[in-house]
Amino acid sequence: MTENATPETPATDAAPADTPDAAPADAPAAEAPATEAPTAEKASTETPAEKAPAAQKSSGGPILDEIRAGYAFDGPSLNFGAAVVENTAYADAPVQIPLAVLNRHGLVAGATGTGKTKTLQLMAEQLAGQGVPVFLADIKGDLSGLASPGEANDKVTQRAQDVGQDWQPTAYATEFLSLGGQGKGVPIRATITDFGPTLLAKVLGLNDTQESSLGLVFHYADKNGLALLDLKDLRAVIQFLTSDEGKPELKALGGLSSATAGVILRELIAFEDQGADAFFGEPAFETTDLLRTTSDGKGLITCLELPGVQDRPALFSTFLMWLLADLFQDLPEVGDVDKPKLVFFFDEAHLLFADASKAFLDSIEQTVRLIRSKGVGVFFVTQSPRDVPSGVLAQLGNRVQHALRAFTPDDAKALKSAVKTYPHTQYDLEKLLTSLGTGEAVVTVLSEKGAPTPVAWTRMRAPQSLMAPSPEALVDQTIAASSIAGKYAAVTDRESAYEKLAARVQATTPPASGEAAGTGTPAPAPAPSGGKAPARKQAQPKEDPGLVEQVVKSSAFKSALRSAGTVIGREITRSIFGTRRR
Fold first, then answer.
1. What pTM, to 2 d.p., does this model score?
2. What is the pLDDT of residues 192-211, one digit of tens each?
3. Peptide bond into 283 cis (omega under 30)
4. End-to-end distance of the chain based on CA atoms, in angstroms?
5. Residue ranges of domains in the chain
6. b/e burial code for range 5-26 (CB count within 10 A of at least 16 → b)
7. Which top CATH class is 63-187+287-489?
């Protein structure tokens, strides 16, 4: 037994029960039509004991009494399921989490196939049902099932009886997004200026020195009013700084060598060659669109569909972090609230922390620590608690731990470390964590007073939406009906660093025989083959310049930019991750 266990209540030796999984193909379809969104679970905050006469009611011993008392909350809460003692679930001992503590963040962990995705789905359903918007990343496409009502089968029925759940097939209002249109969903993008140097360095795989040098490039562009909207804008600035004309300004920056700039440029071109320009540009996604509710007051579930970019984990994980950082920038301070303004699920969180620089990790820790005051709850979803750096893990007050595997000495060491982080309990955690059934978890959360609740072996409820991908026709129909589809569908390409630097070069290069002279600095090169920037440039003709644009293009204005920077340039300041502060 571990140091947390006591002899009075030995841990069970019986194999925990499995969760209901996706309904079999021949399972009877729910009566609710797939295109409608029936009312979310109405009794999510009721006491399960009141609606489950067949559920176990025996005492379960002192450990169950402790759980009953520890999870008896006054305010609205999410119901994970029923407490388990000696492999028996007690529906009159519900394991819950108050809505008011969701901005204290949390961790959902467990080995592959243990039920993490179903837990995420369950939480999203109940949050939406209580008016809380949800954002989640759908790595494999399974979570699109939230838009369809669930299908009953024997496992679902048995699980509902075990935990005292009034299970009803329910579809939830869902918005589907995609990164740059890669996959199904409304396309979303970010500008390079908004994304910032720290996050971009993570995507490009730059080392610390190269990351700091990239920061200087952004500083130069910010100071000189050179908007970095897409990858070709950043490439144009780096090419200019390493050209003969730009070398004096490169030298004036200090700390940025031509060799380092060249390395960054090569990585940027390689990144662009992979078609990454589709993810950057305008219109930039407004993260406040994640905070929407439906006309009947239910929370909207926003699914970022990622199957199309599964082979680019650094890109999509970093993009998720940008969304979170941008929310931090935009939202006002609200302090502790009765229920969060948004709950953000960060799936496959280990991808975010892999090979991350210290500056990047520090920024994540700062974001997680401070965004709670904006009313946003963040849940990291990963295989093991050790995937999350200790500084971030310390900020996660709520934990849902599915089964861990201990196949190697390192796994065994990690298991012992995980056990030590739990409050004192009569469960034999070291044994229990390796024997939990699919759809079972060890839970401890913060109470409404901020104190840790007792550790509870929990048999989780079954999601009421479809535990499989929604039909493609339904997904397509949902995307077509989106209220924001028109806002983000068409790419725009206004004047930015690429055009300004090209005009500057042309203005300073004397003509020769009707053509540009071969001397002087070449104009920024077009995007590499396979890039999409030139096509967008041709497809989006610019309007006739107005007075302001004519002034901006004037040589006097450019001279002012080069010498001292403009008021506009100085207003571009950066915050966490180097993202733009609005």
1. 0.80
2. 999 999 999 999 999 999 99
3. yes
4. 54
5. 63-187+287-489, 192-278
6. beeebebbeeebbebbbbbeee
7. alpha beta
